From TrEMBL:
GO terms for biological process: carnitine biosynthetic process. Belongs to the gamma-BBH/TMLD family. The keyword Zinc does not apply. This is Gamma-butyrobetaine dioxygenase. CDD domains: CAS_like (cd00250). One of its GO terms (molecular function) is metal ion binding. InterPro entries: AlphaKG_dependent_hydroxylases (IPR050411), GBBH-like_N (IPR010376), GBBH-like_N_sf (IPR038492), TauD-like_sf (IPR042098), TauD/TfdA-like (IPR003819). Keywords: Carnitine biosynthesis, Dioxygenase, Iron, Metal-binding, Oxidoreductase. The keyword Iron applies.
Amino acid sequence: MNLQIPLLTRHFTKIARQGVRPAILRAFSTANDQAQELLNGNANSVVQVGSDSVEISWPAIQPTDANMPHTSAYSHLWLRDNCPCPQCLHPSNRQKLHSSADIPLNISPENAILRDDGIEITWDKPLRHHHDSDKHRSFYPLSFLSKYSSPTARQTFRYNNMKYITWDRDLMHAENKFIHYDEYNTEEGLYKTLKQLFDYGIVFLDNVPTEDCKVTQVAERIGNIRESFYGRDFDVKSVAKSTNIAYTSLYLGFHMDLLYFEAPPGLQLLHSLQNTVTGGSSIFVDSFQAVEIMRKSHPEDYQALCEIPVTFHYVNDGHHMYYRRPTIVKDHNQEGGSWGMHVNYAPPFQGPLDIDDPKEAKRFYKAFQTFADIVEDEKLRFELTLKPGQLVIFANRRVLHGRTEFDPTSGDRHLKGTYLDMDVFKDKLRVLSEKHRE
């Protein structure tokens, strides 16, 4: 390695002026590029500037920390694109003021200085289509860089490292604890509710006033209502000539709602206002538990349901809704997914399958029967009668729900429902996790 003393002296002097106390400062060159290594004695981190990236060797902070010892490479392009200064990122709305297409492909640092709390980089050329006379200087706090230092760090920052809990009937009976409406209306209670909703895909509230508007008020504590052609909210009760099987007194098998939409709602809320009928219990199954059983016991059928799309449609009452999706979807490439998987299961709302190959049709029907048999296993079913004032929130793409048949002449049964998108749930959970997660 050929040390260049003038370069070494120049950078050491510049860092000394900034008040940084480096333990070691080294500079070296190769035939094609110059690189610099700077070690800050306080942060105990090593930074190396190469031809196309800046590398940081992160120290161990805690044994379980997301930033446990590892080296991260930050592309020059990525760094310039994500400069957090007010010229590049609006200070109040936090939105970028340039496009990723504006970054010159051959941009590189003219120099880089490691401070106690971050890295300062002066870039060798302006953005494309920008004619700045001064060379741009960016400062990247170590706290910012650490959030993007590895897949684990990114998942921790976005709270995507939380692990859900699959459940069956016995576990749900043991773990299900109603959250009081008054507690829900505190910030800590809302976090507790959302955390339980993430863990199990379902949570119950008690002592919710039996007022027509309460289901939407409960939902709006989480985020904006998701409207559908049923409106902002809907009434679930037996009516004559109903346009949906849910509005009858018949047995309503396990299903998920609105799978014929391109983007079905993420959460459903149901609030019991009246329930004096004989029958009419609410039933729930954790589809993730059913999927896990199927994956282990029937891997070929599991694979079929991951691959073969099912037709969902609603052709009625002036609507023609249609969408195809596999029964089991693994979100391998979506870090923002809440559970890393979702299920699409709604037999009452399936349309004729778009399958032309008879062998492929048989493959699907065999696999679907296997899954249905698992779903209907009594050991997985959690059943309860929602009393007036009780409210359930559940993940529409995870928890299957249904209802036992009831006698409409024996009393009144009236539930009020509404929907939320998954994005508002994830948004609120991340914000509250930052404050309350241990």
